Amino acid sequence: MKLSTSAQAGRDAKSDVLVTVVPAEELTVELAAKTIIVRQFGGQIEHVVRQAAAEEGVDAAYIQVKDGGGALDFAIRARVRAALRRAKGGAAV
Q1: In a 10 Å sphere around its CB, with 0-12 CB exposed, 13-18 middle and 19+ buried, how is residue 80 labelled?
Q2: Strand partners, 19
Q3: Three-class SS of residue 32?
């Protein structure tokens, strides 16, 4: 499923993430975070984002994740799902 509009969820703050989703032709994940976070947790964060997109039935979107530092998997998943639902025009989590 492709998105019809852009949306955001979360905050750019410590222990949280700001997720921005934009309609696109394919699923692309960009992680905007400190280098040390990307090095240590980038693969896991991308896995969680792709898994959340699959759970929402979205296979085409540009998803940017700005990790403020220390966000846990459940928070990342919830923010991604909320942003995707908003972009699809549904109720957010």
Answers
A1: buried
A2: 9, 65
A3: strand
Question: Which among 28, 21, 19, 25 is positioned nearest to 5, based on CA atoms?
Answer: 21
Name the amino acid, one letter, at 88. Answer: K
Distance CA 50, CA 80 (A): 9
What residue type is assigned to position 10 of the chain? G
The amino acid occupying position 51 is Q
pLDDT digit string (tens) for the chain, length 93 residues: 879 899 999 998 888 999 999 999 999 999 998 888 889 999 999 999 999 999 999 999 999 999 888 889 999 999 999 999 999 986 555
Given the candidates 3.30.1370.10, 3.10.20.340, 2.60.40.420, 3.30.230.10, the CATH classification of the domain at 7-88 is 3.30.230.10
pTM of the predicted model as reported, rounded to 2 decimal places: 0.91
